[in-house]
Input
Amino acid sequence: MSTNTETIQKLAQQDYKWGFVTDIEEERIPKGLNEDIIRVISAKKNEPEFMLEWRLKAFRHWASLERSDAEPKWANIKYGPIDYQGITYYSAPKQKKQLNSLDELDPEILSTYEKLGIPLAEQKMLAGVAVDAVFDSVSVATTFKGKLAEAGVIFCSFSEAVQKHPDLVKKYLGSVVPVTDNFFAALNSAVFSDGSFVYVPKGVRCPLELSTYFRINAAETGQFERTLIIADEGAYVSYLEGCTAPIRDENQLHAAVVELIALDNAQIKYSTVQNWYPGDKQGKGGIYNFVTKRGACRGVNSKISWTQVETGSAITWKYPSCILQGDNSVGEFYSVALTNNYQQADTGTKMIHLGKNTSSTVVSKGISAGHGQNTYRGQVKILKGAQGARNYTQCDSLLIGDKCGAHTFPYIEVKNSSARMEHEASTSKIGEDQLFYLQQRGLKTEDAVSMIVNGFCKQVFRELPMEFAVEAQKLLSVSLEGSVG
Amino acid sequence: MSLLEIKNLHVNVDGHEILKGIDLTINPGEVHSIMGPNGSGKSTLAQVLARRDAYHVIKGSVSFNGKDLLEMKPEEAACEGVFLAFQYPVEIPGISNAYFLRSALNAQRKFRGEEEMDAMDFLPFFRDKLKLLEMDEKLMNRSLNEGFSGGEKKRNEVLQMSILQPRLAVLDETDSGLDIDALRIVANGVNALRSPERGFLVVTHYQRLLNYIKPDFVHVLVDGRIVRSGGPELALELEDKGYGWIEQEAAAV
Output
């Protein structure tokens, strides 16, 4: 056996570094899903009537889809049937009172964050990041509200937004991803327990990078996050989302919905580093990450930019998209998706051009290692009225070893002849030659591999906010350990 | 102690015996040149010294600086001071030349228990070497070898060598594909590194390079064996007469 293979196999024995379970009292409702459960969730959250109605509408739609077996099956992913009645749809860490400071936080929760390397405390202020930490499904701590409030920015848990800003919620919730959009979005709309809400008022540039860390921590508890971000006219906001999850044997369903709305001259930058538990080396366990993310560039000259680094989850099903409605609006999608061992990813984007002179950029980097299957699925749609629309798509796949797969499904639909479309695609393998070259200069195999892969992803990483870019590189190296043959 | 001592080295590639008993000793400060026709095993020898996997040593020994080279992984050999200037340097997109070089240098320094060099110290050191090789600083922020011309790639190899400062530098046909100016520049780079503690093994087809890099010894490799060794005059003789006569002589033995 070659030395490379040996090193790699040794590295492959390493376990998921962030797997641990925190022991916290939980408040649960019975397993399963029906209208009563929806009512309980809504009541527990003390929601106004319109929210309950909205949830029920979503539930009824979802139930009809489930009865007619309408769970989407077109993606290039394989998984067994999900027992939707076996899932607990609500769990929240028990808390007796509102917290005034972090010192009052359950020390167990604090130490979990520390293990995750998430400095919820003062360090973040120095780094200029406000954190709205979602622990399980309920937000337990929110910081930097003061500074944001000064600027007029609303950044809070979704539950709080429902209580304090019901008009905004009512106006925008479901306006980008309607309850009937798709199976998982309908499910999320019916049962979501919490999430984040951001509103940046007219002409305000949000003074901090907003970041939320999601984490699944209760066995057999599906996590359904809901995020709604609104950038009013001329506003700017950059939002960071990152997550890791502890080791579990059962598959855990994660079906989040994110809606972004950019009005005239507004900009939203949404960055994700996703590192849910990917399952073990045999493909057992791991998170099912079925996410609907969509942004609407409603206003003229608006811009929405998605950047994602997807290294975790057993299955990823995710297409952060842009609806380019306003004239001159801009949509961007930068993605790194890595699948190792038996991970599967079917991810990409949709760029829907409606307005005049709209432009979109898609850069997708797929990395497959082990038995991983990686699919890029993208749709660029230029509608009739989208005079002068432009799209640039670049889609690269990197294969590591000979048991993995890379697949590309680009759909292009052009109904206006003035459109300019560019599409580039490539598939390459990490060559023995490249590895040997770097080793010959003194770099260890694993460092050589991560250098090659990081180089491959550079175009995407440079779109990430600085501290995330560093985290993303680290993550990629960890996720790749033991992948080259 | 000799720097490199190769004894009765037999090497298989894809089941074929390519090297059939090589003996070669290089002392610190010496420049040896290996010449020979295509397919004689010159590059194989270079790759074995750099510890490439696909080259299987079936017999013999190689000691480097008193240590068993054949026990080393490629990165260990590199860190111990073996440098190979590749005949065909690969391209690695997205990694800047400068970043790569500093990473490599620091990997080696770390291995030797030395302190890593930070960017501030690295830069002036790096700029000196660029000047020596008459390379444009802009090349350094470009991806490693990506879109470099053949000549730029070869110069980049010698640049790496001057930064990593190996104990033994193996140049695998570094002269091939170089025009006369580039050849002179590359040779200058190599000559600047010549020192009493450093050894060179210069693999080449042509005598041309040896006009610029004066070897102490010339060895002729034919069909996996060194069939003749001599001084620089041997290279001139080969240039004059070709390899045919030596091949015939070797076959007659």
The two ends of chain B are 33 Å apart (CA to CA). The helical segments of chain B are 42-49, 74-80, 97-111, 119-132, 150-164, 180-193, 232-241, 244-252. Chain B touches chain A through 30 residues (CB under 8 Å). The mean pLDDT of chain B is 91.
